[in-house]
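ARCHIVE CARD
Drawer: 12
Card no.: 0347
Subject: one protein chain, sequence and derived structure
Cross-reference: see card 0346
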Amino acid sequence: MTDPRPSESGSKPGRKDELSAGAFAGLGIQFAVGIILFLYIGKWIDAKLGTSPAFLIGGVFLAAGGSLYKIYRRIAAEQKMDDEARAKKRQK
């Protein structure tokens, strides 16, 4: 949640310079949708090729790995931006 009151420095209200949970609200849904999508694609490929659970399992692991990597990259980028904003704020 953001604070509607102005910050101590007199800037606009809100948490624009701090890491907020709102920026990551959709990552869990993206994670789940990616896994479900790759699960069904793997199941469809297995049905066409007759390779029972091979592509299903591979698809789930591929989606989970890709989603976790995407989450890591997003968090790292947000943290870097937050650190830079805090450094600028300290220099003032």
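Annotation on reverse: The radius of gyration is 20 Å. The first helix runs from residue 27 to 49.
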